[in-house]
Structures are given as C-alpha cells and as structure tokens.
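Supplementary Text 2. Reproducibility record for the structural model of the 430-residue chain.

All settings were left at their defaults, and a single model was retained for analysis rather than an ensemble. We include the record here because the model underlies the residue-level annotations in Supplementary Table 4.
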Amino acid sequence: MAESRTVAFHTLGCKLNFSETSSLSRMLENEGFEKKDFDDLADVYVINTCSVTDNADKECRQLVRRIQRKSPQSLVVITGCYAQLKPKEIANIPGVDLVLGAGEKFNMARHIRELAKGDSARISSCDIEEVTGFHASWSVNDRTRTFLKVQDGCDYNCSFCTIPMARGKSRSDSIANVVRNAEELAAAGVKEIVLTGVNLGDFGKGPDGNGVPMSISGREENFFELVQALEKVEGIQRYRISSIEPNLLTNEIIEWVANSDKFMPHFHIPLQSGSNKILGMMRRRYKRELYAERVQLIKKLMPHCAIGVDVIVGFPCETAEEFKETFDFLHALNISYLHVFTYSERDNTHALTLDPVVPMQTRYERNKSLRNLSYMKMQYFTEQHAGQTRKVLFEGQDKHGMMEGFTDNYIKITTPYRPEWVNEVVEWKI
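Retained model, structure tokens:
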C-alpha cells in the first residue's frame, strides 16, 4: 500500500476521542492519505471506539457491517477503548482487518501500509501497564470549539468503570507543551479551547509530555498552575474545563474561574449518585456533602455559572429509596443540566459482583425521570437569563439555514445562518 489512499474516520464516545481522531486524521494526511467523509467511499475506514456502555460496542459492530455492505474491499481499522479491552472479540467481527490498542494507535500509518485485504485480522495491542507515553491531541477544523487533550489515563478504581484498563495510568502533558499547543491553535484562528482528559484534575501526574517519569524529570505541576498559564496565551478568547472530579475541583480553581477573563463560567462535575451508600459502593472519592459544597461555592461566586452533572442510574443495589435520594438531591441543587447514563455491566469490574441487580426496565424508567428533570433544569436556567446580553461564539455549520452558538455560560443560541458570524463572538440578548 505504498500508493496514496483515502481514509475516513468515525468517532464513538467522549470529547477525548474526538480530539484523538482529529490528530490521527492529521497524521495520516501528513503520510499522504486523503481524508474522506465516513459516508463516502474510502480505501480505509477507521473507527475510534468507546466502551463506556454496551451501546458503544453494538454501534461499532453496526458500523463495520455498514462498511462491509457499502465497500467490502475497504480496509477496516478499529482503535480506542473497546479495541484495547476486547481485541480478540473485535478481530472476530467479519470485515475487521486491524485492531490497534492504546499503545499502537498513534503508529496507525505504518500498520495500515503493512495490511492487505483478505489477510486474517491483525491485532497490535499490548499490556495496558506498558502504556506510559503521552500523545497530545486536538481537534481542528472539525468544530469551532477545539478539544485539547492535556491528560490521559486514570489511577482511580471506580467499581463500574473500565477506563483504567482501556487507557492505563494517569499521565499528562507538561504545562510548557500545552501552552505551545494553545499558541499554535491561536495562530490557526481558534477562539475557544475545551481542556479534555480522562481525569483532568489529576493533571501533572505521571510521565511528562516527552514520556519521562516525574521521578526523573523532577516535574511538579498541577491543574491550577496549568489554568493560570493558559490565561496568558494571546489569541485564545475562551477556555472551558470539560469535566473535573468534585474532589479535585479546588476552591482556588473555582475562585480563579470566577475572576478570569478567559475561563468560561461553566463547570461539568461528575456526581454519579446522590446516595452516599451508592457512592461508597461505586468507590467514588467523595460524599454528596462535598459535592453540594462545590456547587454552593460556584453559585455564590458566579450566580450565572452553568453546572453540568454526570449521573448513573440503575447501579447494582440501588433501591427505589436510594434513587429518590439522588432525584431529590439533584432537584434541590442549583445545577443547569444532567448527562444521564443507564448502568450497564462491564467485564472485569467489581460492580459485577454486587447484588441485587436492578431490572433493565427500572433502569430505563429512572433514566427517563432524570432526563425530564434535566430538561426542566435547563429551561429554568435559560429563563433566569432572559433579557440579559451575553457573548456567543457561533459555529460554522449551516444547519438548514440556521446556525448555533453558545453563550459564555453554555446556553445554546440558534439563529438564521450568517457567514460573517462564523467563529466570531457576538453580543447577544437572550
């Protein structure tokens, strides 16, 4: 495969995956590949997978079948968390040619050039304990907001989660490298950067951006220092913190954002359950009282701040009373919206040993209940700001003559498409 080939990408899962897909795409284009849309015919299809839920696994299989129907001679490459966790299972899917684990996905071009259609599916994976390097990634030209990966992996051991097995130990870029990347993005015209990672508040742990262990490099950095350094980068008007654990969201970070010109009044803070009993069984590192304290301080310093919350319903042993605890806790909290996940069993997790299991229909009903609450919370939050003028960064996509943007505090604005507003910050009366 020395000749030029076309390649198409599809991403499942989180913002971190989107940033990595964008970087993989640029790497392959630099190697002579021509990028195509996933719905177009291409010589190579790359699926960057997630494995947080069963649905992500199923969607991967469906995408492979779709490619087989559309272009049976094309090469199919699977990478991402699902590929690291279950490489043999993926290799047995008809049509899959290459499975790349966490340690090999950034060597994708070399692996693809060694492939030929018709060979047995090749697995290039490794023991996740051997994955110690950090690869900076960011999305460019995919959307107005650029996702910049600054941290990877996780040292936590939540009982429902496979991410440490899929991405390895916590490790991060150096502040100097992140600042350089932000400066490069500013030069490319990017206005807003979303800082992403698996456990973002753990920034500074593990090897530095060059893969040198902290014990050797002597690097001692933390997320608050990163935030302070990024504030000084010229050209970037807005930053968002994608998701940060409540026990790692310190008062000094909250106070900094409250007084910052560039960090938006918007936090996304995983909760997972409003029951201390369930939080303990999940092996989370905080109790609901700490979470409420964080929300209270944010709202005291920034009454206009948007707060998003991750929550899991149907975790093993979650009774109707404990779900009501979660519902009532969230109902009383001054938050803006929820990301609701239905618990799904994941292999090799401690949660599989817990009984009793919550029936699937009950999980769905609880999910619907919290999604309705989320809708009402966002409606109320938006109505609180009616009549205010806030700054909106408009995105470039033309959606049937309409365009979308977000205020500094994450209220979505939709208006007729105007090309002169693309990637521009506009004063907008809500």
